[in-house]
Amino acid sequence: MTSRDRFELVLLGAIWGASFLFMRIAVPELGAVVLIELRMVIAAVFLVAILAWRGQLGALRGRALSFTLLGIVNTALPFILFAFATGKLTAGFAAVINATVPLFGAVFAFACLRERLAKAKVLGLLVGFAGVVVLVSGKLELPDDRLAIGAGLAAALSYGIAAHYSKKAFGGVPPLVVSAGSLVAASVVTAPFCVFTWPAEAPSLTSLGCALALGVVCTGAAYLLYFRSIARIGPMRAMTVTYLIPVFAIVWGGVFLGEGFTWPMGVGACVILVGTTLVARGGAAAKR
Question: Which pLDDT score, from 0 to 100, does residue 282 have?
């Protein structure tokens, strides 16, 4: 990776770490589905406007199915699941769960893409999932917590699948086109569900501001960085941005929401990050 690649991954980690803070603030008023629909629509409008300004709208044609599949597994589904999870968990805790994305990405590559895992990667998976056990050990007593943790892990799995699908389905396609197309598709797919979950009372300006920040910064701008990273350094290395997200989410949550930090959370985060590091650096995958 070049210095520019590393800088963009750090920047992306800071931005996506803040997304857990914004969701934590806005979900109680807007609900998970409506907040995410606003986030996706704002981001889609932002990116489509850039495409139109560049005269590249024609690049969106002919890929409706691929955009829809990517929009579901990389955007609509994980966004909603994590928004739901942050309604029950702290921003930092949810972000630590997000750090399991490379682990699920490696499992998916092995199970479905016929990639053989090197011994270091197998060790990384075992260590990483042991970290998950440590992380959730003190949070499984309440049904709501169990449901939130399950939603977060399902979202991480969805992200892991999406990174590989994006690389295979959109190789050579500009990141701006991939981002805009998948967000438009995700917005359309999710829109009907807002009818049943629209908030009864008008949301505050704070919640709407969080939705705007999520749309423009944490989705529109962040997707450009993420898909460009996938194209430049590959999906497994791009997914290592999840190492950084928990750090920033814990900092943002502590500074702006006064969220606490527990020992199981710290130990679990460290073990998960060790596991994901082994997975990312465990050698090139081979076909089996």
Answer: 63
272's CB contacts (< 8 A; 6+ apart) are: 96, 99, 100, 103, 128, 131, 132, 135
Q: What is the pLDDT of residues 231-254, one digit of tens each?
A: 888 887 887 787 788 889 988 999
Q: What CA–CA distance (Å, rounded) separates 160 from 183? A: 18
Band of residue 285 on the pLDDT scale cut at 50, 70, 90: very low
Q: What is the CA radius of gyration of the chain?
A: 18
Q: Could you give the CA distance from residue 127 to residue 273 in angstroms, rounded to a whole number?
A: 9
Query: One-letter amino acid identity for 157?
Result: L
Structure tokens given for 115: 């990639």
How far is Cα 259 from Cα 171, in angstroms, rounded to an integer?
A: 41
With tokens 């199981």, the residue in question is: 264
* pLDDT for res 190: 97
By the 8 A CB rule, do 21 and 91 touch? yes
Band of residue 122 on the pLDDT scale cut at 50, 70, 90: confident
Q: Which of 214, 164, 199 is nearest to 17 (CA)?
A: 214
Please check the confidence at residue 284 and state whether its pLDDT lies above 50: no
Domain around 38: 3-287
For 223, the token pair is 């997707």
Classify residue 116 by its DSSP letter: E
Listed in sequence order, the DSSP H helices in the chain are: 3-30, 32-54, 64-71, 77-86, 91-98, 101-112, 119-136, 143-169, 175-194, 205-215, 222-233, 235-238, 245-257, 263-280
Strand partners, 287: 115
Number of domains forming the structure of the chain:
1
Please name which of 215, 66, 95 lies closest in space to residue 155, comparing C-alpha atoms. 95
Q: Which amino acid is at 252?
A: W
